[in-house]
Amino acid sequence: MNNTRHKGFATVGSAYYPTLVAVFTGLVLISNVAATKGIAFGPVIGDWSLITDGGFIVFPLTYVIGDVLSEVYGFAATRRAVYVAFVMEAVAAFTFWLTAYLPAADFYEHQAAFEAVVKPFTQLIIAGLAGFLIGQLLNAWVVVRIKQRTKERYLWARLIGSTVVGEFADTLVFCSIAATAIGIDSWDDFLTYVALGFVYKTAVEVLVLPITYRVIAYVKRREPTYQPVV
């Protein structure tokens, strides 16, 4: 094996990598189900209010896990995790869609409510798949590219820089497809939806930066194949 090739990153053979991928995938699925509800904050001023969706609660954490994967395991391993989550989202979308269209049992009284959640979810899954794939891959690419130049220094620059690029691309693509699914039908509400989503998710990642630092340090110390690049 060429050790130089893996300098600065760990291989994926330990228990930490699959655990991180499982948490990553779970957060993606949870956030996309929660995103079927549009949410408005604060008083309505004229026709304007703060518009977002339920995915805001946990979705920023997917980028925290993505940063950990990128920093410790590199781009190829992170891309694999993104593809796993992508496939599971697609499976979830197909399962919910098929369940909604199968005939309901006579005793089941909630078909309309189920469809009200699941049908928008199918559109949101398409939005989530597109935004997630583009955003997470850009996020991972930026982390790795900056690390190639800065080595182990300036972790904060890698994490914040990747967040700004990845979250902006993810939010713009997701909101462009998902807006109509949660009832957004005006340009002003759409711009608010995009801006609030981007600012909020980026701010969350910056606020939890100390936690991200500690998780990365913890995994690096315990990954036997991790080789710091100096």
Topology diagram in text:
Elements: H1 16-34, E1 38-45, E2 48-53, H2 59-73, H3 75-101, H4 111-150, H5 155-178, H6 187-207, H7 209-222
Antiparallel strand pairs: 1-2
Helix pairs in contact: 1-2, 1-3, 2-3, 2-4, 2-6, 2-7, 3-4, 4-5, 5-6
Short structural summary:
This protein is mainly α. The chain has 7 helices and 2 strands; from the N terminus they run αββαααααα.
Characteristics of this structure?
disordered N terminus, mainly alpha, 2 strands, transmembrane, transmembrane helix, Arp2/3 complex 21 kDa subunit ARPC3, membrane, 70% helix, 230 residues, two-stranded antiparallel ribbon, globular, 7 helices, transmembrane transporter activity
Determine the mean pLDDT: 81
What is the quaternary state of this protein? single chain
- By DSSP, the count of extended strands is 2
What fraction strand? Answer: 5-15%
Radius of gyration: 19 Å
**How would the global form be characterised?**
globular
Low-confidence stretches: 1-5
Assigned CATH class: Mainly Alpha
**CATH fold description:** Arp2/3 complex 21 kDa subunit ARPC3
Strand order of the largest sheet: 1-2
| Continuous helix count | 7
| Main β-sheet description | 2 strands, antiparallel
Helix and strand sequence:
HEEHHHHHH
CATH architecture field: Orthogonal Bundle
Helix content: 55-70%
Judged by helices, strands and strand pairing, the structural class is mainly alpha
